[in-house]
Specification:
The chain is α/β, with parallel strands linked by helices. The protein has five helices and nine strands.
């Protein structure tokens, strides 16, 4: 990669380069903790996941789901791993596929909130209660998450804290307070418990 005199920091973990500082959400731990919360606090044992495994965050979140299920010694039928594309439409399609299984899940974790909204639409069309029949957890805490009914339980990325860390890392380099290889700064996420789980 060609170097310039400009200082660069990166938001997100989609771009791998050891020269630059990166600030990103700890989505692995957040997803692991959310699945564990469904198991320990909500007594779910049949938990499905709708992911986007061809993306870097999608891979991390899916691995966290699988690790949480393995740690709890819970089986993951292959059909419980559905693939989406971050859209409402794919979330709805994936949820319908899960609901048509002989043994449907009692909880679903979606890789983002839009797919979780699609899950809620599918569940409503099947006449099922949320969270009574199926609990739903999303990721991102978009504005719609707190406006729909039922309100969506989700994982919120701390955007303000990420921005502050990004600015601090940039200023440290600009002012010469730090000179060295790229650093990784992970910012924790928050489980926002609402009505859907």
């Amino acid at each position: 990669m060609q170097r310039s005199n400009a200082e660069v920091v990166i938001l997100g973990h989609h771009f791998e380069c050891s020269d630059f500082d990166r600030v990103f959400a700890d989505d692995y731990k957040a997803t692991f903790d959310a699945v564990n919360w469904l198991i320990r606090e909500r007594n779910h044992t049949h938990i499905a996941y709708i992911g986007v495994p061809h993306t870097h965050p999608g891979q991390r979140r899916q691995q966290a789901y699988l690790q949480a299920m393995q740690s709890a010694q819970l089986p993951v039928p292959p059909q419980y791993l559905q693939t989406g594309d971050f859209t409402i439409e794919m979330g709805e399609r994936a949820m319908r596929a899960l609901l048509d299984l002989p043994e449907r899940p009692t909880a679903v974790v979606a890789c983002n909130d839009l797919m979780a909204l699609g899950c809620l639409m599918a569940l409503k069309s099947y006449g099922l209660q949320v969270p009574g029949d199926v609990a739903v957890v999303g990721f991102d805490d978009i504005p719609e998450a707190s406006r729909i009914s039922p309100k969506l339980t989700t994982l919120a990325q701390r955007s303000a804290e990420m921005g502050e860390q990004l600015a601090q890392a940039l200023f440290e380099r600009m002012e010469g307070k730090y000179v060295g290889p790229g650093r990784n700064f992970e910012v924790s996420c928050e489980l926002v418990i609402r009505d859907s789980a």
